[in-house]
Fold this sequence. Notes:
Blueprint: H1 2-8, H2 24-48, H3 56-60, H4 74-105, H5 110-121, H6 123-134, H7 138-154, H8 156-167, H9 179-195, H10 201-219
Helix pairs in contact: 2-7, 2-8, 4-5, 6-7, 9-10
Amino acid sequence: MALAVLGLVLPNFTTSTSGPTFSTEQEIFFVTMSLLLYATFLLIETLRHRGYFVEAKETAIKPSPHHLARVRSTRFHALMLVLYLGVVIFLAEKFAIPLDNSIEQFHMPQAFGGAIIAALVLSPEGLGGITASLHNQLQRSINILFGSVLATIGLTIPAVLLIGLVTKRSVALGLQGGNLPLLLLTLAVSVVTFTSRKTNVLQGCIHLLLFAVFVLLIFAP
């Protein structure tokens, strides 16, 4: 929430530059702060408070042989992560060209193409979260959510800002139009969802509704 508001809302209200942008000093500060927060989260998730991110039944009950998951080494997961990233980036790059041509041919908004590419890039995390939920592995599903969201905001924005600093181009970060209140509403609904002792179907439907509004604003801003 802090990264989302500081990176996507605060630029609309800063006065050092005109428009929804950061000054050079602000960009350097945000890049440093984002990377430090991301590193802190990884430290907490993997070392200091690892138990918070492990299923309770995994630590309290020894799993039966029928439900014993195969545990791979860290080196294996690191290698597979690099391979997955390479495949996803390759597919996104190759898919972007015909997608842009189709958008121009059918006179669709450019934001729709960005949304499709984002969905393609995030498909491994999305499918992994859905699969974990279907197998009643809710903690794993939440872990995928946290990792995906934090990486999307905490790494993507700094990467774009660094490219902007190197190429000396201004990067517009602040959300405009209906996307700004939609982001704030999404954060508020997420607080209710994750602080409730139990979630229910209604809360899930509200999140789907917010996604539907996001798609609507692409075609009818």
